[in-house]
Amino acid sequence: MFDRYAAGEQAVLVHVDFADENSREDLLELQLLVSSAGVNAVDVVSGSRQTPKARYFVGSGKAEEIANSVRANQADVVIFNHSLTPSQERNLEKLCQCRVLDRTGLILDIFAQRARTHEGKLQVELAQLKHMSTRLIRGWTHLERQKGGIGLRGPGETQLETDRRLLRERIKSITRRLAKVQVQREQGRRARLRAEIPTVSLVGYTNAGKSTLFNTVTQSAVYAADQLFATLDPTLRKIQLQDIGSAILADTVGFIRHLPHDLIAAFKATLQETQQADLLLHVVDYADEQFRENTDQVNKVLEEIEADDIKQLVVCNKIDRMEGVEARIDRDEENVPIRVWVSAQQGLGIDLLLSAISECLSKNMVQHTLRIPPSLSKLRGALYEMNCIAEQSYTDNGDWQVAVRMEQSDWQRLIKRSEINLQDYIVSDNQN
Q1: pLDDT of the residue at 258
Q2: 83, 258 in Cβ contact below 8 A?
Q3: Average of per-residue pLDDT across 8-21
Q4: Across residues 30-34, what is the average pLDDT?
């Protein structure tokens, strides 16, 4: 049912420059997408227009140029760096006598190749089905849609109607299954919330180095490659942070310009790892000349999925490719970390990154110095259990003087559990 093409095909790429900034795409990014899909680009047809034409998206002269390039290079597919309407795809296919694919279809195909888990495959299939629902007629242009004559008359569905009905049923089935996955993920999040384990989610433009950073920090072996959309399925690992304890680090799908809305809808369960995070690590490839535009695109997608109000720590990655740049932490006027300069590939600045994450997550931490008499052995045991002791010593009269650091919620719970007024035993305190 899917319009998948085999890897290794010959493709003619089409790129149009528009005057409108919002309609512009990047030709280099298209070439990277095509390479990631395993397709060989044999020619690039480019041009410029004020607005797309209704019939071929491009002008009739440019459409003929594309068709001539297909014949000259014996291409199997034409790939546009833009979104096409179903009628534009049909008209171009009739003219070029080969398969025509737009940017959305290309991204969907890459996603279909990359999906590893059952959930990821379901999400990709749902996005493909929604995209295909408006393009079914193309698959039946070579067949009669209704047949007449003796023995063939009467009520019944055409093949096109049958396909549309089957497609609707399949979409409903996948949506129900993904709803179950979403419930399971929500249960996992609630369990982490009860255990008060903070979640840190990696976000960023595709190929910014998120998976490489994830592997370096967690010492994992998640698939990472120098290609677009190497990661689709979210991966969670537990990490240990100084003064915080356990935290969950989540590696998520990369974003891209004009990410298809069907994909955003299909990957809702995955993107919830981003929506529910306590801190977003926005990984930026600072060696890329377009890092500012890429950063803006990521922030737009975060706004679309309603995750733009979550605290961000920018990770300026790939400093090994830049001259005169060293690992460091940039801070704002209140001395709060806002940027960390690292190289995930070389492991530069990872300690600084972990320190900055700890600082960002420790805003709800409290520090107290307590003086506890020997008679309160239960309280002493509770503090040891909570693993919150920073320093300890004994006074001349045998009292235990201890500096503790813990989350505000843990401190409040300790107050409720204790049979004494803890405030009476505080020597000094320093809240972050």
Answers
A1: 66
A2: yes
A3: 80
A4: 83
CATH number of 10-101: 3.40.50.11060
Query: Residue 416 pLDDT > 90, yes or no?
Result: no
User: Binding site for GTP, residues?
Assistant: 204-211, 229-233, 251-254, 317-320, 343-345
Identity at 419, one-letter amino acid code: E
Binding-site positions: 204-211, 229-233, 251-254, 317-320, 343-345
- The span from the CA of 324 to the CA of 311, in Å, is 29
The mean pLDDT value of the chain amounts to 78
Please list the residue range(s) of the chain that carry CATH number 3.40.50.11060.
10-101
Residue owning tokens 């689709």:
232
Q: Where in the chain is the domain with CATH 3.30.70?
A: 365-425
| Helix, coil or strand: residue 4 | coil
For the segment 285-310, the average pLDDT, to the nearest whole number, is 82
On whether the CB atoms of residues 132 and 148 are closer than 8 A, the answer is: no
Instruction: Estimate the crossing angle of helix 408-417 against helix 377-386, to 10 degrees.
Output: 150
Query: In the predicted model, what is the mean pLDDT of residues 176-205?
Result: 74
Specify the residue for token string 């500012």: 292
pLDDT band at 192 (very low <50, low <70, confident <90, very high): low
Residue intervals in the chain for CATH 3.40.50.300: 197-362
Is the predicted pLDDT of residue 341 greater than 90, yes or no?
yes
- pLDDT value at residue 260: 66
How much is the pLDDT for 222? 57
29 vs 428, more confident: 29
Task: Give alpha helix (H) positions in 6-84.
Answer: 27-36, 60-73
Binding-site residues for Mg(2+): 211, 231
Distances (CA, A) of 159 to 4, 139, 142, 163, 395: 21, 10, 12, 6, 88
Q: Supply the CATH classification number for the domain 365-425.
A: 3.30.70
What is the DSSP secondary-structure string of 289-312?
A: TTHHHHHHHHHHHHHHTT-TTS-E
DSSP H/E element including 211: helix 210-218
CA distance 379 to 373: 10
CATH node for 197-362: 3.40.50.300
Comparing CA positions, the residue from 100, 97, 78, 75 lying closest to residue 87 is: 100
